Amino acid sequence: MGQNQKAIALLCGTINYDNHQDNPCVPESALQLAYSHQDQLGVAAALGSLGDAYRLRGKYDLAINYLEESLTIAQEIDHLPYQSSALNSLGNAYSSKAQLSYRRANSAEKIGYTRKALALEAKAKNNDSEALKYFQKSLDIAITQNDQSGQIRARLNEIPLYYRLSESSASVMKWQKEWQKAYSLLETLPDSQDKVYAAIELANLLQPIAPAHETSPWIRCYQPKLEPQATALLAQAVRIAQRINDHRSQSFALGELGHIYECRDQYTKALELSQQARLAAEQNLLAKDSLYLWEWQTARIFKEQGKVTEAIGAYENAIATLETIRSDILTASRDVQFDFLDTVNPIYRQLVALRLEGDQTFLKSALPDVRTQNINIVLKTIDGLKLAELQDYFGNDCVLAAVNPARVDLVSTRTAVISTIILKDRTAVILSLPNGEKQLEWIDSDRESIRQDINQFRRELESFFEPYNSQQAQKIYNWLIRPFANQLEQAQIETLVFINDGILRTVPMAALHDGEKFLVERYAIATTPTLTLTEPKPLTPRSWRALVLGLTKEAIVDGREFEALSNVSTEVKAVTQTIPESKQLLDEEFTRDRLQQELGATVYPIIHIATHGEFGTEPEDTFLVTGENDQLTIDELDRVIRSVASTTEPVELISLTACRTATGDDRAALGLAGVAVQAGARSALASLWFINDQTTAQIAAQFYQGLRQSNLNKAQALRAAQIALLEAGGQYARPAYWAPYLVIGNWF
């Protein structure tokens, strides 16, 4: 469990993420005990600590509520140190909110949502402005108290905001002035851990200005003219850390100093400092969150020196360390999570690239068994990355424990798995056959070219009116399927399971085309984020009971309008007729409370939800619209399901038939890919884009009929429903109507 989770449990007695809950803490908690003893100082301290802990969990609004309470009490009792601390924490909370909005704005801009991007950026700047006010108030108190440590803390917190809010040369000058003041304050501090980290932070602030949506300093190099000053600060940090015998801060100082030499291409010195940083981190169990960084740095240096074997070993050490601290660094702090794309994702991908590309002579001359073993290691590495990606997205480590670490046995199922791995300049495509045979092929296009091709494919595919052109569908088919066509035929494969990477998750594989037929006409198709999260169990007779929820009326949620779904009543009727043992909750009856009540009263192996659903870049943008004009996030749905499923069988299938993910938003598609796991279900039926048409009812009804009456598995049942629509001809033969539906997770 992350340290902030433990803090919440101690202070509050329970972890509460429910903004609807008025009194989240249990009577015996530290906070409630302070209240009962009328210990105002204790209450202020507990509220402040609780606010900080919730900020680190990414629950910024909850954090702000607690911190504002703490500040109010500190003001009432005129306790200036607590006021300064609460103000500083409020600044951090608003700064973290801003960082999230900048990231969401960047993602919206990348997929063409310009208006949304501008609104999010404006929101981010407002939050940054609020943060700056709080930091300045904290600084004022620190100055009146002659608190040098508080002053440098406030100034260091302010400086990145001047970066992000800068619109003129005056703002840049303000940043430089604040940096110089913080630097002068550094010399007034006694040797301490705080002084070490302040020196490191001052050095980091000399790095080139990063885009507002990024936070990680680990991959940026210093400008040559500022490098000597950064080197001096880091060397000073090392000396202080050594004098006070603080291994954790010493590890960071040594590691970052090593990075400077890495940037200079002075690899011998860089390696020496990186190894010293590793040794320092190993002296302190709490320093493991830095250990993986220096193992990664060591791997990069070995790679640049041409020492492939040593580099692979160092990368594997970094990943092994990550695996041991995953619950802390990927779920403990949303601020840390912002660094995921910069400091976790590359470690896995660089190792995979090295194994697949690093020693071509070895790979070409190796025996087939050796090549297969190497590919199996690569697939295992990527499985680890997929788990880490989902944990980063949903922020929930416990839910995403692998249910099948050995991966699914495909021998008796006539199922092949196609895995894609997007690297910098090309993409690996790996076929896994039932007999264990593996085949590796390459897409010789860089990441951006692939993105453009897939976005064009999605735009053309989603058109309900323009003549359909299969050219892009054939191009992607040639990437992913054609190289394996003979092997698939010889193995008599009937089902293809895709474990796709990045932007490839947004591709509806059913619509790929070989020049004669769509892929769905030849194979049943499923997708899963990783086989280690797939529990391959077929539906049983006991599974035929469904809770069917739907929204037919227009809704307004947070000022945003959602159109009426005129065909949902038809869909709900079709599902309940196919599964007579069903209960329906329509419109006003579809509420969070009624959902929990029904699931608590009756076991429903199938949950069918026909309402607006969106999958966005962040979990905050991923939700379903309920009948009470409210958002039900996937995280909340998971908590509802798991709160009543502890003594029952898990949900077999959750169907979300009116979902949409934006074209080009591969992170949103990651959320869709992980929906079954996060919602506490073995599998999901979901859509990549929204269709307000009677065809959704037809697809749903025929899907369930295929499962129940024709004894098909889920992938086969969806294929039958899609082909029925395709063969009906007319407008419904367009892929726009039948292609977006996916079986995710357990396809049996």
In the CATH scheme, the class of the largest domain would be: Mainly Alpha
Average pLDDT score? 86
How helix-rich are the residues, as a percent range? 55-70%
CATH fold assignment of the largest domain: Serine Threonine Protein Phosphatase 5, Tetratricopeptide repeat
Overall 3D form: globular
Number of domains: 5
CATH architecture of the largest domain: Alpha Horseshoe
> Which strand order do you get reading across the main beta sheet?
9-6-10-14-16-17
Radius of gyration (CA) equals: 27 Å
What order do the helices and strands come in, and which of them pair?
Elements: H1 3-12, H2 30-36, H3 40-56, H4 60-76, H5 80-110, H6 114-144, H7 148-165, H8 169-186, H9 193-204, H10 227-243, H11 247-263, H12 267-282, H13 288-304, H14 308-329, H15 334-337, H16 340-343, H17 345-357, H18 360-365, H19 368-394, E1 415-422, E2 427-432, E3 438-443, H20 447-461, H21 471-480, H22 485-490, E4 495-499, E5 524-527, E6 546-550, E7 555-557, E8 560-562, H23 568-578, E9 582-586, H24 592-601, E10 606-610, E11 613-615, E12 623-625, E13 631-633, H25 634-645, E14 651-656, E15 659-661, H26 666-673, H27 675-678, E16 681-687, H28 695-708, H29 714-727, H30 735-738, E17 741-745
Parallel strand pairs: 1-4, 4-5, 6-9, 6-10, 10-14, 11-15, 14-16
Antiparallel strand pairs: 1-2, 2-3, 7-8, 11-12, 12-13, 16-17
Helix pairs in contact: 1-3, 2-3, 3-4, 3-5, 4-5, 5-6, 5-7, 6-7, 7-8, 7-9, 8-9, 9-10, 9-11, 10-11, 11-12, 11-13, 12-13, 13-14, 14-17, 17-19, 23-28, 24-25, 28-29
